[in-house]
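Protocol step 4 of 5: obtain the predicted structure for the target chain.
Materials: sequence only (see below). No template structures provided, no constraints applied. The aim of this step is simply to have a reference model before the mutagenesis design in step 5. Sequence pasted as it appears in the construct record:
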Amino acid sequence: MRILLTGATGYIAQRLLPVLLEQGHQVVCVVRDLSRFDLGKFQHTDSLSAIEADLLDKGAGQKLPAEIDIAFYLVHSMNVSGKFESLEEEVAQNFVKYVNKSTIKQVIYLGGITNADILSRHLNSRNNVEKILSTANKPLTTLRAGIIVGSGSSSFEIIRDLVEKLPVMITPKWLKTRTQPIAVKNVIEFLTAVMSDEYCYGKSFDIYGPDILTYKQMLLSFAEVRKLKRTIITLPVMTPRLSSYWLYFVTSTSYTLAQNLVDSMKVDVVARENSLSQRYHIHLLSYKEAISIAFDRIEQNLVLSTWKDALGPARERLSNAKLIQVPKYGVFNDKKCRKTANQEQALERIFSIGGFTGWYYANWLWEFRGLLDKLFGGVGLKRGRKNQVQLNVGDPVDFWRVIYSSRKERRLLLYAEMKLPGEAWLEFRIQDGMVRQTATFRPHGLAGRLYWYAVLPFHYFIFNGMIKKIAG
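Step 4 output (structure tokens):
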């Protein structure tokens, strides 16, 4: 079958795509920035193609192929500040116009469980998108999920941050809210199982794991799997805003996502039972099993996608193709060059930078800069990296984003996603036995220039120390 996959750089789509290819389907991926989508990292690339289209544009449907059998709608905007509801509504309406003119036989949408009387903004928007998609003249199958547990999922990473960093947690009362988590493996199994099954046409189903847990039970169960002893104290006085700030500063989440998560966590997300798992013979993994599988993948460096792969608001309209062209004029540079006796070792150090490895010199200063970034509403240093040995275009590295990555060319280019009065690039190259390290900063106005001169003394020590360690 010929399948259209929207949201192709997102968390679920990156897990679904290899499965669809292994099953022998022709897959057309829709991406907003083609330069961020690396076709080469997938097998069966002869069955894979990608189209650059922004579904927010009313004419985007004209770029998409008319001859498609099944379309997966996996577009979400939970990490976007402001009125994400209106964005999701507009994208869904544009997609319906495309569907109506295509040969699509089935649209499959991954929504959220919406069985509570009062819904959060996030769940209400998911429900609204489902209603819009159902107006198309092609059958819609909706799978509604609650918390998705898997290596790199936002829920998993937030719970991991809380449990591993805090022996004692002072938490808000919403930790008593119930939810029914599902393993990401099961989500992918359901998404592929309902394809072309006419029984599912025009219907919606809740998909869920076997455990109904409170958020407190989820935290304690996570601690049990990790063999950690944790104490949780809930207070009725923590407001949603305080709770959002608490999540934002303790975990790697953005403040926008923290707000939306807290809003959703006030609502019970418990599924309506159905026989879908029996129909497709899907073994539902328990919450603890899902956690164990997630850590197996982390330890083996097999994490395919993370929620952090999504761009921050400041990068939403900037393409990699433009950012690869590092500006030469109107910028400040810090250039360092050092001879290396072992180019291969130096290359390994470059491609291992950030995350658990750190930045090779004065890591406490990097951590302090990350804390300042958090205080000003930035992404901070806690995002880390999803793979400790590989870096692909689009991967996050702490508060940087990989713009260009080539071991063959011995080049790595990073773009800053921290809060700055300007734009910043950090580039590493190895040429003729020399490690070349270049920091480029394009200031925005007087504030940008003052910022550069203020951090110049720190740059002298940090960048000198860093290239010395990389060169060995």
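Step 4 remarks: Residues 311-317 have pLDDT under 50 and may be disordered. The CA atoms of residues 412 and 472 lie 18 Å apart.
Proceed to step 5.
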